Amino acid sequence: MKTTAELRATYIDRINALPSQFPALNALRVAAAFMVFILHLNYFDVAVWKGFVGEFFWLYEVGYVAVRLFFVLSAFLLTLHWLKTPRYGEFMSKRFWRIAPTYYFSLVIVFGAVFVAGAASGKDWVIQLWQHLFFVSGTSSVPGFGVNPVYWSLSVEMAAYLLLPLLVRITLGVVNYIGVAILLSIPVLWKLLVVYVVTQEWMDPYTANYAWYAFPSFIFDFAVGILCAKALVEGFHLPAMMRHVAIPAGLLVLLVSVFPGSGTTGFITGAIVPVLCGWLLLSTLNSQPIASWASKPTISYLSNISYGFYIWHAFIIYVVVSLGGTNFLVAFSAALSLSLVASATSYRWTKPLHA
Hints:
Layout: H1 4-17, H2 24-39, H3 46-53, H4 62-84, H5 88-116, H6 123-133, H7 151-173, H8 178-201, H9 205-211, H10 219-233, H11 238-257, H12 265-285, H13 288-294, H14 297-304, H15 306-322, H16 328-354
Helix pairs in contact: 2-4, 2-13, 2-14, 2-15, 4-7, 4-10, 4-12, 5-7, 5-15, 5-16, 7-8, 7-10, 8-9, 8-11, 10-11, 10-12, 11-12, 15-16
């Protein structure tokens, strides 16, 4: 396996020639954040808003795709950053101060609201608090979704940050996609462990459901993002770039095929979704019209606050519905507006800490 220094020597000249920012990706961030917002409209009475959107109700499902897109996009950008500046302490410090201020600010508000409302009782809320404080959602039988259904993904992101140098070495440092095959085996084996072994002996199904939201189940998403970075630095030729992403998908489908039975068919979908996200990312990078449009100040600003929007929106939707937002159009507009205000405010207050 190649060392980080060897990988850096291979790619550094090409990475240095790349732009410092990719404006086209602003569009993906904004779109993905709004897709997750649509997903969490399930806090509303489904019959009410299904009646409002009619035949477009299926768009509700795109929120699941958006989370995978965030993971692929994150791995893509962080791989380029790591290969350019492979200093682990500096890397982790920047990552922590990028996500923690808004995250902890929201924890104070969300848990404060829960306690003021008298909704917190028993040790479960204490367990949830320490899970979220230390980015370890899904490590106990207490669900990590209770106070805010997006917090679990921050634990996955933090695990990815901690392991990114190793993932980059495995994905890029082993020839002929053997490293990718190794990574692909991890989510399969993890699923089998959770579903067929742990659930039967150590965990109840409720706990196992949350264990599945641990980092190993999303490792393929990060591998796809790393491969997108590899494809970019090796030459901006779209068919070749897509081939880099398509090959691991084929490997995963083959790997899954040797494990017949319930619980494994989801892996095929699990392979296709991040690969499509990888293709979307590479296609977007290759689109000058999108880059031109996404460079506009409004889109750039929405991209900057998209992380805060992701953190705040579900809690705000829940509050709007709890306060009696029964008219879908009014409640939708209120939730969207308040989410934008909260994300803009937290971005302004925490921006100095990002450096």
